[in-house]
Design goal:
Layout (H helix, E strand, L loop, with lengths): L20 H8 L6 E5 L2 E9 L3 H18 L4 E5 L2 E6 L9 H11 L3
Antiparallel strand pairs: 1-2, 2-4, 3-4
Length: 111
C-alpha cells in the first residue's frame, strides 16, 4: 500500500464516495494515533497533540494551516495552552474521504 503521507489530495465533489468500513480499517493502520469520531452522524478523524506551552502549540497550528492551504483541504483546529486538537473530515460529503486520511498522515509529519 502506498504510504498516505506521500499522496496528494484529490478534488472532492458532492458525489464523491465516502470511505467504506473496510477501507477505513485499512487506512487507520497508517494513522494509529487518530480516532474516528461520529459527530451528529458525520464521521471525523481527530487527534490531540501535546506541547510544552502555548507558543509551541500555536506554531504547530500555523504549520497545519499552511499544509491545509497547500492541499486546499481544511481541518478544524483547536489551539489551547499545551495542546492542539486537529479534526479532519470532508465537509462536502459530510464524512470521511481518503483525503482526510492523507491529511492526517501529513499532519503527523509536522511534529
Amino acid at each position: 500500500m502506498t504510504q498516505l503521507s506521500t499522496l496528494a489530495c484529490e478534488a472532492c465533489q458532492l458525489d464523491a464516495p465516502k470511505v467504506t468500513d473496510t477501507e477505513q480499517e485499512i487506512l487507520n493502520q497508517q494513522i494509529p494515533d487518530w480516532n474516528v469520531l461520529d459527530r451528529d452522524g458525520i464521521k471525523q478523524l481527530e487527534r490531540v497533540y501535546k506541547f510544552k506551552n502555548f507558543k509551541l502549540a500555536m506554531a504547530f497550528s500555523n504549520r497545519v494551516a499552511e499544509l491545509a492551504e497547500a492541499e486546499f483541504h481544511h481541518p478544524g483546529i483547536l489551539t489551547e495552552w499545551g495542546k492542539v486538537t486537529v479534526t479532519w473530515w470532508s465537509h462536502s460529503i459530510k464524512g470521511l474521504h481518503k483525503n482526510d486520511f492523507i491529511m492526517a498522515a501529513k499532519t503527523d509529519l509536522l511534529i
